[in-house]
Amino acid sequence: MTDLRTTLPTLALVVTTGAIGGWIAKQIGLPLPWMLGSLLTTSFIAVFIPRALPETYKTPDLFRAAFIALIGVTIGAKVTWEVLVELTNAVYSFIALTLFVPLAQWTNYLIFRKVGGYDRTTAFFCGTPGGLMEAMLLGEQQGADVRLVTMQQFLRIICVVTMLPIGLSIWYGHPVGSAGGMTLSRAEAGLEHLPEVIFLAAAGLVFSHWMKLPAGQLVGPLLVGAVVTIAGLAVIEVPGWMISAAQVVIGSTLGARFIGINAALIMRGVGLSALSVASMLIIGGLFAAIVHPLAGEPFDVLLISFSPGGVTEMALIALSLQANPAFVTTHHIYRILLTVAVMTWSMKKVLMRDPD
What we know:
Elements: H1 2-28, H2 33-48, H3 61-76, H4 81-87, H5 91-115, H6 120-126, H7 132-142, H8 146-172, H9 194-211, H10 216-230, H11 240-255, H12 263-295, H13 299-306, H14 311-320, H15 325-351
Helix pairs in contact: 1-2, 1-11, 2-11, 3-9, 3-10, 3-11, 5-6, 5-12, 5-15, 6-7, 6-8, 6-15, 7-8, 8-12, 9-10, 12-13, 13-15, 14-15
């Protein structure tokens, strides 16, 4: 009961602060304003005003999962037979992604080991281009500094979510994401279909838990939403304000992860993460340029498909390019699975090498 009395007010503070940050970001025209604004606001408070939030605070998993599931179901509704046919032409991009993952892993290892000065085990698990939870769990088992692994993995996602849409906005000369007018819902959508959306989101969470799917909070509901949409069993529509609220929750709770980490450690980690993410975006950009004429997909869509950020965030960015998020999401699911496989296979070989 004591934990509940502490958690609920703190959660309300985190989400309210995130909503304010999202509103400000919307006014100044930042890309993905509700998610990016809330993320930056709450992470700033967590790092630089630590007394504002209890050090032991942790966002309830089910609360965040519910909003991610809402995004997942809505993305699933975008899956059509035409999209499925398009995925059969993605063989070249999947081959390139198979090469991208080990190359990105090795490049990141060198950055965290040689530039960051992290020990071999910590550098290895900090550098995985995906598999956040797996990297944290395996890193702890192998004796890595879990505090650094956790920080760098979350910073990887934050840097990608920040750098990619801002970079694309500069490239296009106008905001992308919801700041550019893109949304997962129709403007006139009401609440009449909300009961089935809630049911499908819950069913997707249960399914993902049962199947142990990667990024299951998003992928399970996405698959359920896709199946019922293709089969014509349900109409999935939610108002735009609900999608914006979901982005606020996702962004603000991600930013709150930095509670208890001092500013000096964060600033050092941000520099390393920026270098790591920049190198991965360059590698991904090269692969996208090579695959572009073969895959029949625009360069920017392929770049997002190779960008090592969160699955949910990358799907939202894909919408800003008027690309179906199912294409991008499929690539990121594969990236996560491949990253876990490469990490498991290569960690013994890397960690058994001499320190020098």
